[in-house]
């Protein structure tokens, strides 16, 4: 521990420095200063923990120095040494929370005892802080252990001894305790800034916990199969299902506004904790039935109108239109058909699978060489993934339709407009200060977004998103090198409102942070 003696009388300072055996009371190094100015210089360079300070000094006095210390280094313990018994000084020292106020002349043992107490107080404070940090870290680890244990239980992977220890401590519900189990799905993001799964889960948990705080309920959230999350809610008295539905409507609305995304929450009747594995599988089935990717709160299987047929009645007509070169008409008709199925409440996994099969059957009939056409149509990994994803959701099905009819209409011979890349680069340059979206570029140059993405990747070797970020970072690099604009302003000039996101993107592309780049430019000058 380091101590600083401040006294304008050299002999007094030297006498204190060598007249006390500092090491016996826990002081390793002792520094001396003959003025407040000199003291500040030492404090700024060394990790001083205790100051012995005279009051009467030329220039800035001891009280003024201590006031500066408390403002900039509040952790330093200050002991006042003075030959003046002026009450106003003592009063000021008390206001500044000085550890002690010693009147001179004072014997070395008296000063030694005062410093000893200061050392003990500092050690106790440091120990308390260390214990608090250890406690926080333990709570964090325990919370993660609870989340992992519940997730593993739901998926049938259980470490029995560990799990039952948590139950004995009341950290997770007892087997017979009734709980609510939720599945929360991120449908789509409405912002370019996407939250990290763990942080998103933690924040979801905090929002839900605050909502149910008055009911004294416990909430645990965990990452399931991103972008899906699980949440368990339990307590002595659970809300009824109607109340729960109202609360979840509020929570879902809050999630969508706070995270800037669209979410769906799936819930079933509360059940004993021991039955949650079965409940979890039911929730997954409810989620998978939401092929229209609608947001909201769902409290059971989606109801369908059994009186409406989900089969496509015009497979042959679509096939004929494709043969005659009217692919766009097929795309529009198929899209409207999907929308009608969604609006009528018929749409679910089975309905979408039947539609998928009927549409591809129409395409097969329209092609001249059947299997050969399909091999060319889905020849790349990206194209084949479109084929596989068609049954995942209505949005994926529409993407597949758009791709197939475009390829059919172009007779599988896609030609790239001569100035396509130039137009894309010009658009990015003209909109550098904005958040540039793929759909905006596609609309500007009159191309389908999916087609633009595929052709751009084929021509440049990188995705459109990668190219936009790289272009923005090169512009930022140029501004850092050629101007003295603040880095935060440079971030705004290339369309970033979140400085951390900008710094992360810059380092990922350039290998160093923008701050390191700026320091390097300054040193070269």
From TrEMBL:
The keyword Magnesium is annotated on this UniProt entry: no
4-aspartylphosphate found at: 54
UniProt domain Response regulatory: residue ranges: 2-119
Function recorded in the entry: May play the central regulatory role in sporulation. It may be an element of the effector pathway responsible for the activation of sporulation genes in response to nutritional stress. Spo0A may act in concert with spo0H (a sigma factor) to control the expression of some genes that are critical to the sporulation process.
Organism: Lacrimispora amygdalina
CDD domains documented for this protein: REC_YesN-like
Record-annotated HTH araC/xylS-type domain positions: 422-520
Keywords, in A-Z order: DNA-binding, Phosphoprotein, Transcription, Transcription regulation
Family matches, as InterPro entries: CheY-like_superfamily, Homeodomain-like_sf, HTH_AraC, Sig_transdc_resp-reg_receiver
Cited Pfam families: HTH_18, Response_reg
Identification of the protein by name: Stage 0 sporulation protein A homolog
PROSITE patterns per the UniProt record, alphabetical: HTH_ARAC_FAMILY_2 (PS01124), RESPONSE_REGULATORY (PS50110)
